[in-house]
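Repro case for the chain-ordering regression, as requested:
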Amino acid sequence: MPLDASLAALLGRELGPGFTTAPAALTAAATDDSGLVLPPEAVFFPKSADEISRLMVLAGRHGFPVTPRGAGTGLAGGALAVSGGVVLDTTAMNRIVAVDAANLCAVVEPGVVTKTLRDAAAAAGLFYPPDPASLATCTLGGNAATNAGGPACVKYGVTRDYVLGLTVVLPDGEVVKTGTATRKGVVGYDLTGLLVGSEGTLGVITELTLKLIPHPREVRAVAALFPDARSAVATVAAIMAGGVSPCALELMDRACLGIVEELLPFALPGGEVALLLLEADGDPDQAARDIGRMEALCRDRGALAVLPAADAARREALWDIRRQISTRIHESAPVYLSEDVAVPIARIPDLIAALPALGRRHNLSLYAFGHAGDGNIHVNITGDTECRPRTLALARELIALVLDLGGTMSGEHGIGLAKRSFIDMELSPRSISVQRSLKAVFDPAGLMNPGKVLP
Amino acid sequence: MSQAHVLSGAARRFLEKHFPGDAAAFTPEEMFVYGTDASRRHAMPTAVVRPSTVGQIQELLAFAQANRLPIVARGRGTNTVGDCVPASGGIVVSMARMNRILEIDPDDFVAVVEPGLVTGDLQAALAKQRLFYAPDPASVKFSSLGGNANTCAGGMRAVKYGVTRDHILGLEAVIPGGELVHCGGRTHKNVVGLDLTRLFVGSEGTLGVMTKLTLKLLPLPAATATLALAFADVDTALTAAASVFAAGILPQALEFMAREALAAVAGISTVPWPAGAGAVLLIRVDGSAEAVAADIRLVETAVQSAAPLWRQAAVSHDDEEALWEPRRLLNPASFKVAPDKISDDVTVPRGRLRQAAAGIAATAGELGLKILLFGHIGDGNLHVNIMHDAADSHERARAQTARERILALCLSLRGTLSGEHGVGLAKLPFLDQQLSPVERALMARVKAAFDPHGIMNPGKAY
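-- result from build under test --
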């Protein structure tokens, strides 16, 4: 481990009270939502880019790794310290610097919780669309580092589509600004685009300029039950092709519905039924029209039941079903692995059809739910305490299938630690070597979140 | 003439072997047109090749890397900043023959194309299937998708749909040395590894040669409608534009033309708006027929307090076209005002547009120049045409001064030197005003990671 007692003491003197080796802080920084446990040797809670810069200079001088972390809601272990060193927790940098209604943008520090910004924007009549499931706790810095998605992405795009510019501390302690405060900009390489989704391996984000849009005035929801996943997904394709632009299109398979049965507003029939949760937003008239068209398309395509949410409370109840699914799967078994593969939209039925046999072959339970509108399906794998090797074998088989269907192993969670051993299934050796050389451009000493993403 | 301008015998034999017949050109007559683009700059290529296959490009980039030969790839040469001009000599690679639509998949909402395909040709093919590729640079009828990707082209619909980079899911490119890299994929989401796709898009041919693009498609909006509005002056028009967003409407396009631009168009064509207008807004909305009608009513209400002098709405295709045609005539019309122009596409945060416009008008007045101001104000992107006669050295100098002042003004308003045209040769002298030495050095190292010997479009960018 690179941090001995005398170095820790020196860092404490140099960095001040934000630096700690207290066991409680190390324990808190040892986990995220991946289920992995890797305690660092110290944690630093900076208040400014200058303090981060000072830490990086010290890291370079003494050769210890630095792992940036937001709220630790990542599912791939990206914020965990694999080889000790310092976890850089950005949650104390949580100021909203500006919500600028005239320029339709916000300037925030990385530790701002996503929901806090969404609420502040809404108060000004504005909308920050990215809505990862963890939005009540996750941070905007973490969202940018992982390029987080969410249900609204089908209409509004992912986090990278809303990051106009960044301030970043590079591994050598230099501070750079990337991008612009404008909607468009083509001066220089798109370093903003490169940093978003780089999972803390290129630098530390210290400020974000985010794009906002006018807030939709109304949102309407409907749930539709289908006899099988194939007919549900065929409806998704018909809706997407029909010129309606839903702002959420969530799919839940039979296994998912089974664990939330008592929450369902209908009696769960037998067979391989699947549920769609659909939303439309915009003007009150338009949202009503769009939801009406989607209901009609669901009926045309053989929905067994179409259940519109009459008011906000009932809409909330439908989303609670969707959220409870994740929570209950997580709690249902000692071992839990969340894959977030994405396939081209038309291939979703092939993916879902293959899951039961895959689960049986490895003697594991599989649940599929997620963002059907952009092909991003969360496949959750659960099993007993002894099953970890089997889950990895299943994940490998699942990824092979997904790649065969023209998909990707991760739509929104990232690679981190959890999927690192699979990345060469998707990326060619040349692509990996190009990425390694880019990593070396930013971080020649390899101190920035080492052991992540690239093999 | 530098070494790069002379083709060695070995290089010529290599090119003749791998690019047989008319796939290679060596005479000045044949090569001349490949040395220019819409920037009106020119430099003679050392040789020109017109590949039909990815394999040919791989061979070429292996040879060029080994022999340190500059490579300048070009689409249709509509670039306005000199990206396609082989300023340091080199082999120009015309992608025009690689122009096939490889696949349109209406279920996956994906098109796979070769880079030489003309953007308008793809849009026409998609419309037949009620599909939609959103980016629409002004040159859409003759610019290529590869060129659009290399410059991250924008266009009128960017305010709602974003720019080219927002619509490229994946790409294939040959990098110096001849190896093929694949970036991204065909899913609408993908977070595996660093986002090389975004790095290639907008790199102005300085990292590699794109050979295949996977594009994101959308359902074709069922209907569009346009509202044209004339105002007494620029400031009132820009205030009205801001009130459109404040009303919660995100139009498909929001275009602006100031008095001198209106006069230029009126000089070559009839225009629908009254002669005395100080500024015109063209606002297009899209969606279902009902939504479009409702949006137009909302826009009319929103702009009421700015007291438009004149208004006209259009819902049929022909009526809409009649309102948009004058906007498209701006470029040819501008050359009736003066023989030469300096064209910039500065972009400022939307809330700073009025300040930018006022500053540009003041600059025009102080220097006694006609400056045409128009553009995609929905995303803060202003096209500034500084009209002058370059044969008059005093006037040329004043035009240069105007340019420097305008660029400095826009940067001081937290803007950017270029919203969609790129840096190329034209904006290179000003780059350091926007990028810090640390940022520029980082970009230079990024380039070196792909192109260690600097053979890709040398003399451009970073």
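Ordering looks correct now. The domain at 5-89 of chain A is CATH 3.30.43.10 (Uridine Diphospho-n-acetylenolpyruvylglucosamine Reductase; domain 2).
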